[in-house]
């Protein structure tokens, strides 16, 4: 009869079986993800408002870094530059204050090219939330940024819970 260890982080596993390598990725030789670059992840938020001019693609600024496990996000330029090639999950969101019945667009750009976007139309309320996400293969040194575009002057609201930009290396 096999006995099971119910206290394992990943759930039930047979006693005596090897524990999974928590905090390590394939190919890593260290638990210290900062040193080997295996666990790349960051999250930054927007805490202040930002103007977006009519029909002008505007880079969204996320100046407050919540974490950056591999020192790849620059809050001064709101740019993520991975140190390691791989597949990354990228998420960006904004909260827009504008007149009703206006459409908005949010884009994730890699090296100046749109790789993911979302369009939303405001309704009778004046706050509209937009988010966009993608899983994409990035090369070391690629520049990842978020841009917004609106057909009339609008304000991006600084909202810690909703306006954020984040990425995690997943493969």
UniProtKB/TrEMBL annotation:
Source species taxonomy: Bacteria, Bacillati, Bacillota, Bacilli, Bacillales
Entries under PROSITE patterns matching the protein: C1Q
Protein name in UniProt: C1q domain-containing protein
Protein origin, superkingdom: Bacteria
Domain C1q intervals: 35-171
Organism of this sequence: Fictibacillus barbaricus
InterPro entries: C1q_dom, Tumour_necrosis_fac-like_dom
